[in-house]
Amino acid sequence: MQDGGLEAGRIEGSGRRRLGTVLALGLGTLATWRVSRLIVAEDGPGEVLVRLRRSVDGTPLAGLMDCFACTSVWVGAGAAVTLLGGRLRVRDVAVAALALSGAAMLVERVAAEPDFLPEPEVDSRLVTLLD
Asked: Are 47 and 127 in contact (CB under 8 A)?
């Protein structure tokens, strides 16, 4: 198995296949962007994220829910551990987490083009629109 490439390999003893590192980073980038965008700028199903934002308003967690760059660091860390943990050194997983965050911010920049994503219908100060 070539861990650094697109090739997938078998996980010892399980018969399951593992994503190649490059593919894992690509999927991790999209997952980091999507989850970060959901947390920061969308209402969520049944406005669950609006209610969550209200409940953390005025706490240190509020800052993590209204800043895409901040949120993407923590979401990217979770994605890196999930996708790459156990096959890379801790140092490399930490760097991958930062890379996923940076890549998600690039995707967000592209997605910020006019009409790429619909605006939320709820006019609320709790919904952050990214420019």
From this structure: no
Other CB atoms closer than 10 Å to residue 128's CB: what's the count?
17
Retrieve residue 17's tokens: 């296949």
Q: In this structure, is residue 121 part of a structural domain?
A: no
The CA-atom distances, in angstroms, between 9 and each of 4, 43, 84 are 11, 39, 13
Q: What DSSP string describes 44-110?
A: -GGGHHHHHHHHHTTSHHHHHHS-HHHHHHHHHHHHHHHHHBTTB-HHHHHHHHHHHHHHHHHHHHH
Give, as one character, the DSSP assignment of residue 39: H
Question: What's the pTM value of the predicted model, to 2 decimals?
Answer: 0.71
Residues 42-52: tens digit of each pLDDT: 888 888 988 98
Number of domains in the chain: 1
